[in-house]
Design brief:
- Keywords: Coiled coil.
- The termini are far apart.
- This protein has two helices and no strands.
- The chain has one domain.
- The chain is mostly helical and about 120 residues long.
Length: about 120
């Protein structure tokens, strides 16, 4: 009878060992998946400051270019305003000379009248 009990104990131990091995394997797989996910999250968190720094640098480069373009545009506008003012005085002088010579100049376009009235 002792042999039967020994066999039962051996089989039971073998079954329990298999169940334990399956449970351990599942736990190990779950732990490995959790570790992989944690590693992935840590990598993203660590890369975030570097990405922000890269974004900030790109923003600064864009801003510098826009600032330079704006300064150039402002200078062009100043130059064109100066040119328009000089042209206004020149045409005014020519119109005066024409009238002094007895020639009536043609009426200026509406846009010129608007400029003379508003300065814009």
């Amino acid at each position: 009878m002792t042999g039967v009990w020994a066999a039962v104990v051996t089989v039971t131990a073998a079954v329990l060992t298999c169940i334990g091995a399956v449970y351990t394997a599942r736990s190990s797989r779950a732990a490995a998946a959790a570790t992989a996910r944690a590693t992935e999250v840590a990598a993203v968190v660590q890369s975030e400051p570097a990405q922000r720094a890269a974004d900030l640098q790109a923003f600064r480069e864009i801003r510098e270019k826009q600032t330079a373009d704006l300064a150039e545009t402002r200078e062009e506008v100043r130059s064109l305003r100066s040119l328009v003012r000089a042209f206004v005085f020149y045409v005014g002088d020519l119109t005066t000379q024409m009238r002094q010579a007895g020639i009536e100049p043609p009426a200026p376009p509406d846009r010129i009248n608007d400029y003379n009235r508003t300065g814009v």
